[in-house]
Amino acid sequence: MHELSLCNAIAATVDEHAAGKxxxxxxxxxxxFRQVVPDTLQFCWTNTVAGGPLDGARLDIVAVPAVVVCRxxxxxxxxxxxxxxxxxxxxxxxxxxxxxEFMIESIDVSDRPDTGAA
Amino acid sequence: xxRFHPHGDHDHEHEHEHRxxxxxxxxxxxxxxxxxxxxxxxxxxxIAAANRAELAGHGVRTVNLMSSPGAGKTALLARTIPxxxxxxxxxxxEGDIATNIDADRLAGLGxxxxxxxxxxxxxxxxxxxxxxxxxxLDQLPLAELDLLVIENVGNLVCPAEFDVGQDARAMVYAIxxxxxxxxxxxxxxxxxxxxxxxxxxxxxxxxFDLELFRANLARVNPHAVTFEVSATTGAGxxxxxxxxxxxxx
Lengths: 118, 249
Description:
The structure holds two protein chains of two kinds. Helix content of chain A is 25%, strand content 32%.
């Protein structure tokens, strides 16, 4: 259940960037090579923010495909299974260029009805 | 604001993209998109870097030892600690969701043992993070150590995601777990520098294909060094012990 601690980390960072504004959407980029279960993350997020300043903020998870580039032939392969191998020449001398992302990309904020513009 | 952004090469902290009619008036909804571009584990990674720096300052090299529950991390360490005696000064940081069973098992073997239970708060964590390791470091005489082995919580998923400040990662894999584990848990198997293949004494009794396991491991991590051992009989430990000593120097 590390989704729960991940949600706490996300909430802390979002809170800081929102600077008191209402947060409507939190946009995440999650690579396919990350072991994060989106449904579990959503469930934990709802529970983490309930009753706090981020209550109601929607989590928008953008999945990033896992891509490797071959050191032998230079070809690029999008992985649909966790085998790090070039689809072109079958070499396993590959470097992962995407798929390990786990970041907060952006947040959508608006003024809280009772506070007006910050 | 004013935070260091480890990711992205943007040269300003926030991009504000105003959307919708009336946003520029400063009234109406005040809706805007704020670019954050922060690693979600950034805070953990900063503390891990501080742990690494503190350990390096004391001349301590650190191995993060991971495995599924029951693969034999503690049994391996119980064999390893005496083998390291007189060659390198070793400390153990035990992570367990609850209980001091493993820590007690290792006490008295010649290593300094610190225990971090991860069950503070709700539910118990499935891994050690950098903050938990930070709290364990205070229990250890770092100035007197050459090598610290962090025995992580038994789990093939979560511990691979968290940097705790180690210099190297190793895992214990038991041949009772089946040949396909590297493909099912590629993040863990990919994260490690060394794989200790344990319970080799059971090989005659199992329908286990060692070459298939090695091929699966090579598919996700062609560079991991491997050691075939039995923590029960003590067979095959030399290569692992030498790897630890190399890591510590």
